[in-house]
């Protein structure tokens, strides 16, 4: 399995994921699946992309070879708290909108997805604080040029 360490590739992953999710949701899922099933499939795709990122991204000093333990969502507890808090805020906002429009069942499916992601990342943050993971020193990068001999 490949690992993504550089920030620019992480941003590219999320940009490509958003574009792909939009294309899949707008053109394929919504056109070929009935309404309740389309919402469930779209939210399962969101879960797949976010959890896929959690499995492939690596932080500074995090070992590359071994896979992350199942509960680990990010490299540091602070990052997990922030990401989990953002998902929790999104869940609360979606629940409030659903309370105003109770017939919009797709909002309930979305809120459930956001709650799952919030719990995953906040659980990860708590475990990372209780059980700090060992870090490995980053290898010294090889020089990209040969020194000039005089």
Which helices and strands appear, and what pairs or packs with what?
Elements: H1 7-32, H2 35-56, H3 77-100, H4 105-130
Helix pairs in contact: 1-2, 2-4, 3-4
Task: Explain how this protein is built.
There is one protein chain. With 150 residues, the chain is mainly α. The chain has one domain. The chain is 65% helix and 0% strand. The protein has four helices and no strands. The protein has helices at 7-32, 35-56, 77-100, 105-130. It is globular. The model has no long low-confidence stretch (mean pLDDT 87).
Précis, in short:
By secondary structure, the protein is an all-alpha fold.
Main features:
150 residues; mainly alpha; globular
Oligomeric organization of the protein chains: single chain
First-residue to last-residue Cα separation: 44 Å
Largest sheet: none
- Low-pLDDT ranges: none
Number of domains: 1
Q: Counting H and I runs of at least 4 residues, what is the number of helices?
A: 4
Average pLDDT figure? 87
Beta-strand level of the residues, as a percent range? under 5%
Query: Which structural category fits the helices and strands?
Result: mainly alpha
H and E string? HHHH
| Overall number of strands | 0
Q: What's the helical proportion of residues? A: 55-70%
Radius of gyration: 19 Å
* Overall geometric form: globular
């Amino acid at each position: 399995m490949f690992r993504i360490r550089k920030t620019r590739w992480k941003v590219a992953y999320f940009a490509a994921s958003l574009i792909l999710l939009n294309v899949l949701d707008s053109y394929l899922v919504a056109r070929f699946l009935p309404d309740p099933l389309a919402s469930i499939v779209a939210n399962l795709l969101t879960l797949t992309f976010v959890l896929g990122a959690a499995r492939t991204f690596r932080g500074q000093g995090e070992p590359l070879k071994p896979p992350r333990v199942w509960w680990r969502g990010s490299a540091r507890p602070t990052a997990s708290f922030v990401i989990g808090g953002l998902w929790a805020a999104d869940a609360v906002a979606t629940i409030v909108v659903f309370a105003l429009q109770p017939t919009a069942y797709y909002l309930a499916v979305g809120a459930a997805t956001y709650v799952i992601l919030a719990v995953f990342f906040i659980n990860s943050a708590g475990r990372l604080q209780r059980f700090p993971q060992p870090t490995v020193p980053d290898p010294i990068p090889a020089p990209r040029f040969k020194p000039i001999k005089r």
